[in-house]
Amino acid sequence: MDYHGSQPGTGGVASMPGEAQVISMDFREVLAGIWRRRLPIVLSGLVFALIAYSIASLSTPRYTTSAQVLVDNLETPFNRAQPNETGNNIAKLDPADVQSQVEVLQSRDIAKQVVAQLHLTQNAEFNPSPDRMGLFRRLKVALGFSVDPRLQTPEQRALATYYKKVTAYQIPSSKVIVIEASSGDPRMAAALANVTAQTYVKATRKVQSEATGRARKWLSEQIDALRSKVTASEAAVEAFRSKAGLLKGQGTTTLTGQQLSELNTQIILAESQRSEAQAKANTIRDLLKRTGTVDSSIDVLNSPLIQRLREQQIALKRNLADLETVYLANHPKIIAAKSALADLKRQLRGEALKVAQSLEQQAKVAAAREDALRASLAKLKSQAAVDNQDEVKLRALEREAAANRSLLETFLARFSDASARLQLDAQPGLARIIARADPPAEPSFPKLGPIVLIGLVGGLLLGLGLAFMAEVMGAANRIFDPARGNVANPAPVEQAPVEEDAGSVDQPAVALGPAVDAQKLSGFSAAAHEHAAARYRAARDAALRPVAAWLISQHATLGVKRFALVSCGDTDTVAAEAVMHLARLAAGDGLKLIVVDADAKKRLLGPLFGLSGAKGLNDLIAGDAAFSDVIVRDTGSAAHVLPAGLADTGARTPAMRERMNTLLDALEHAYDVVLVHVGAATGAELAAGGPVAGCKGAVLFAPTTRGADAGAILAHLHRLGARSTRLVKVGDPSGKQDRDASARMAVNA
């Protein structure tokens, strides 16, 4: 069924004695109020833009430009006198060094040189006349907030202005220093930046040149003294070497040391040969003792005689095998073959023993040679002990001579390097200019466009903020009157007076009208029917959309999750269809929502959602179904539906009501919003409790002619715990006048 809407009324604050009062406002109403104040907002922006334009037009233009200097060690391996020095030995600068150079660039000495080169003491911009101070400057001087320029020299005044107009800073994570200068003259701004950069670069070279000159003079004196020391120390080394007889062998060792090394090597070889021969002999004897054969001894098997005997042994074994296939074991040929094989085995054993004896003899010879070498080594050791004492003295003399020679070579290389860099232009310096400043074409201040735009935006924002505050405060005053504690502007609903504790609604009431009777449009075309239906759908959505927004805001701000949807009078069918569309509108905003039909009498929601004959809440209460059997996804939205069901529970007992509340609590934990359609109810029916008892919010669908009943129902809803309520007014249930008017309106449109 379609509806056409009307304008919303005003609401108030629903509260019980001793309860906190809840105020909520429609954000769209606030936006509409701001839109009504659009002219003052625009005027505020224009006024601020005009003020900004005046300030920008009257300001003195200032031109700003910048130069860039790279701070780095510019020394290379090719401008050094030492040929063995490589790029890896060049010192690297860290960020702390670069920051130190920023302070050097801003030093007073650099500033004085720039002031002198550009003659800034004769420039009125940098050295204004001290007698032309303005009133504000005189007041600052009198109060001690500024230095009196009349007490300063022209250079001091120029330096003070220079530091205001020239700044230097390091670009983060780099070795680049930016020198930024500003002036009323673009050429002066460029000159300030460039001259400051050039003066700084020359200063770094001059510092290194002065240090190089001092080092060169000192090196020259030290070199003269070192030459005589090196000559004397080297002569003393050679004289002592000849006297002690410490002649050199191969490399840097003496003859005695070389002989000791060679004898030690020969002893090791002889010992190794002896051990190897003895080990081989012991291995052969051990094999013969344990196994009686030498099949696994390499030294025995390598003997040519053993190899021939092994060949004969193999031939005899083959012959014996052939004879055993023909004759018996006691045959003479078999006995002769076994006897020959035994003789050959004894012969192999004897030859293996001879090999072992030969190896033992070799071990004895190696041992004798080892003893002779050790005797020679003992004699050389006694001689080496004497030579070592002399060699200690020789090494001391050699160390002294080497130290003097190394120091002399180092000083000579540094002296050569210092001589090559004696001139200022030869110094590599610590910085170089990578970008020179050019005279700027446009002033950096004032920028007319951005200043005016900022003023316009600031004025608009200020006006918008004031309008928003005025609208919010005005809306709060319209909704709640603190002096009365109830509705300040009640809705124009004709109703009988209600008792004092009946309460009221805390949101503006929304009106719904009856549908257009199809019989009234029977004489019109299909286009008229479609046009009327479209207008009814638009009016219905316009009437229910504020209610859906209210549901969402109550859930978002107050945490209300369960809402009771109640009707009174003859509005059951209208309210049921309104509940369906209200659920679809609220579910369209991304909420996880479920609609529960708790009206056990009429069960109107199931057919509206296309769920006629489906199990539902009553079946859950009776224990005939599970949640997965009764919860259905709405085909027209993202909402879920729990119809009333098929089971006839009759009058719900307290146990059934308790079970139903438990089921609703479970749904409240699973969903963001639970809409419980209670249907038509009176104040007495609601007093018994039921599904309304656990609902923190409620929506009441009431005819405009049932004001007293609506007040009583609202009072009962508040007593049952509904903190927030909403009234939806429904037109004449008969709908005769409204339908006739709606039909005429639709056709005329």
Defining key terms:
749 residues, alpha/beta, Bacterial polysaccharide co-polymerase-like, 8-stranded mixed beta sheet, 4-stranded antiparallel beta sheet, disordered C terminus
Write the layout of secondary structure elements.
Layout: H1 27-36, H2 38-58, E1 63-71, H3 95-105, H4 108-118, H5 135-143, H6 154-165, E2 166-170, E3 176-183, H7 186-244, H8 255-290, H9 298-301, H10 304-324, H11 332-420, E4 431-435, H12 448-479, E5 480-481, E6 486-487, E7 510-512, H13 526-558, E8 562-567, H14 572-587, E9 593-597, H15 605-608, H16 617-622, H17 627-630, E10 632-633, E11 640-642, H18 654-670, E12 673-680, H19 683-687, E13 697-703, H20 707-719, E14 724-730, H21 736-748
Parallel strand pairs: 7-14, 8-12, 8-13, 9-11, 9-12, 13-14
Antiparallel strand pairs: 1-3, 1-4, 2-3, 5-6, 10-11
Helix pairs in contact: 1-12, 2-12, 4-6, 4-7, 7-11, 8-11, 10-11, 13-14, 13-21
